[in-house]
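Contributing new records

If you add data, match the layout below exactly. Sequence lines come first and carry their own label; structure lines follow with theirs. Keep one chain per record. Anything else will be rejected by the validation script.
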Amino acid sequence: FYFFIFFTNKTEQFGNLLFPAFTVPEERRGAFQSQKNTLALMADRRSAFLQVYYKLKSELLEDPSFEFTDVSRQWVDRMLDYNVPGGKLNRGLSVIDSYRLLKEGKELTENEIFLASALGWCIEWLQAYFLVLDDIMDNSHTRRGHPCWFRVPQVGLIAVNDGILLRNHICRILKNHFREKPYYVDLLDLFNEVEFQTASGQMIDLITTLEGEKDLSKYSLSQHRRIVQYKTAYYSFYLPVACALVMSGENLDNHIDVKNILVDMGIYFQVQDDYLDCFGDPETIGKIGTDIEDFKCSWLVVKALEICNEEQKKVLHNYGKLDPVNVANVKALYNELNL
């Protein structure tokens, strides 16, 4: 599905350039029209989803628990717009899609769509919180094609407090819109559980890259899976579906297989992300990859360790070094191993 969206978007963008004299055959026009209708529907869904973001943001900027000044309100307003809605929004939109599937074709009410959207935005807020702090810890430069929030002039380490604010906003949104729901406590527990799992995965990732303790012998596919399962898969793939299940009145303990499948999807996603970090075009993926320089437990390096010979393994002494020559040597080895 994601490949279809990417491909059709690129076809729309570059079609005239690639196929200037191309005419759609009569028998294929129905399929092309259906594809265009799907893209138009997706654009409408995204637009409707963004309208919920603006409503939630407006509520947060008027939160009665804090007496905003004009300056502080403008800061939070700018910080939210910079960090929350700028991604693909797949996590948030997945809540609505999952809830719709669980309703088995029944038409959703406006209130149901709003509540599912609000939960989707809670996940996007959680994502923003993680990314703002992750970029500081990784000393990253760009995110989504723009400077990382902490690198924006006058922001700096204020971004740490902004990250804490982003996390607290989730509780405010849940309180404002789900406090009277019978599953309110289940939602709070779910978000707390997933945040704990993600932070713990981040901890494993960070302590494996400590200066002075860098040891490639500690890296393996099982170690990579452990990091990715906790750091990425739970909040990116399991949480959206779990939110929809909770909203539908389901007990998550009865859907362990769902969790297992979604975790595997999350691991597959991270393997792709590891590849793009090394070989993706920064203009396309919106960030400059630094996994090699940061000595990350990436799928590429653990796979290289698994299949390379002793001579090739010596090349991996370049791993975790900042010099572009060292980085190029590692990438050359990956290519040699057909990774």
